[in-house]
Amino acid sequence: MSTQPKRSLQEWVHWFEIGEGSRWVRVAGLAAGVLLLSWFVGYKLFRGPLTEVTMAQAVVGRQVAEGHGFTTLVNHPQSFAWAQERISRGKFVNVRKPLPELHQPPLYSAVIAAAHRLLPARWFNGDTTLLALNIVLLWCVAMQSFFLAKNLFGEMGGVIALLGVMLSAPIWAATVAVNGAVLTMALWLALFQVTWSAETRVMKACDGSAQTLRRRITMSLWRPALTGMILGALFLSDYTTIIVAPLVAAVIWTKVSDWRVFRSLVLIAAAFIVVAGPWMIRNVSLTGNPVGFASQELALKAGDPTAEPATQRAMFTTDSPAIDFKKLGNKALTSLQRGAGERLWSGGGIFLAAFFVAGFAYRFRDARANRLRWFAVAVIASVALAQAFLSSGRASAMCGCA
Any stretches that span the bilayer, and where are they (predicted)? Predict the structure, then answer.
């Protein structure tokens, strides 16, 4: 039986105002505000999936949840041409059943399938469930932003980062588009979290000398493995993010000069293969290409009548279109111009972008923050260039890197 005296009303008021309870009050108020904001913005802005790509990924997710594997009910003439070629080679393809998905990366569809299996059937309401799933992913992005900024700049910096995410019009536009862009954002932030963790361990474990830094940076084995897994997940959410893998390898190479660099690179490569290898092997066995028909995106450009992706999928052939380097350069310049001139500055993004750019003139006291900032800049620039050249532009995924 407890002998602790009960608190008086005045003690409770003091506990809520300046005691430990004040923290819980702030957290509860912030959580309530996030919930209300999510409901209000989702109710006002959500208009269902905006592109056929999103709907096709949702269909694949339902097929996976129902036990049919990565197949699709959205069949294009190109898919039937592929089936005909397989049959002509003596490989059986039952065209009366859903054909394999050969055009899209699988991760977002797998997440949709997981939500489909976890939720009771009566709760799964198509478009509304997709919106709820993307809002939950947005909350994960907000919390990751909070913890990363808190580690970098303190608790107040974390709160500002969280509010910046939840009040960002471009991020909300990507969320209500239910195209899986927030899933890519969460993976990018996870990569930055692992990078920060590695930098923190190095600073705590070594005495600051260059020799000790090189010796300690690869002591932990789980960080390279987790980095490879995140890179694999990024690849399965957007094929163009493979451009980051050489960048990560270059960062490790510059930090470590002895044989331990090879151990880290092997761990990253092995983890990447464990995550993305089965999907690439599956695509190679079906189409001869690790990314399937998505490789044709290089020669295609949405909005160009002579290189329209929908036109290519509507052709009864699996042959890749010829690459016109003039059109390729024009596509890249148009994508970069649109990204810098419209997406980066729209919906209040000008303030966050200006704040980020202005920070280049300031050197943080913490060297880890400086290194992480330049790593983020290199990642954003490389992914922007990769998407400008490799993507057809029919599905905007650059917001996942914002």
Answer: 24-46, 130-149, 161-191, 229-254, 261-281, 344-362, 374-390
Quote the domain boundaries for residue 380: 46-401
Please report the pLDDT score of residue 1 as a whole number.
45
The number of domains in the chain is 1
pLDDT confidence of residue 277: 94
| pLDDT tens column, 307-331 | 888 888 888 888 888 888 888 888 8
Spatial distance between the Cα atoms of 248 and 254, rounded to a whole number of angstroms: 10
Task: Classify residue 234: in a domain, yes or no.
Answer: yes
Distances, alpha carbon 144 to alpha carbons 137, 185, 194, 278, 402, in Å: 11, 10, 11, 29, 14
- Within the chain, which residues score under 50 in pLDDT? 1, 207-211, 213-219, 396-402
* Residue 145: inside a domain: yes
Q: For residues 119 and 296, give the distance between their C-alpha atoms in angstroms, rounded to a whole number.
A: 36
Specify the residue for token string 């897994």.
229
What pLDDT does 224 receive? 86
Torsion over CA: 219, 222, 226, 229 (sign): positive
Query: Residue type at 278?
Result: P
What single string gives the DSSP state of each residue in 154-172? -HHHHHHHHHHHHT-HHHH
Is residue 10 assigned to a domain?
A: no
**Residue 322 domain flag:** yes
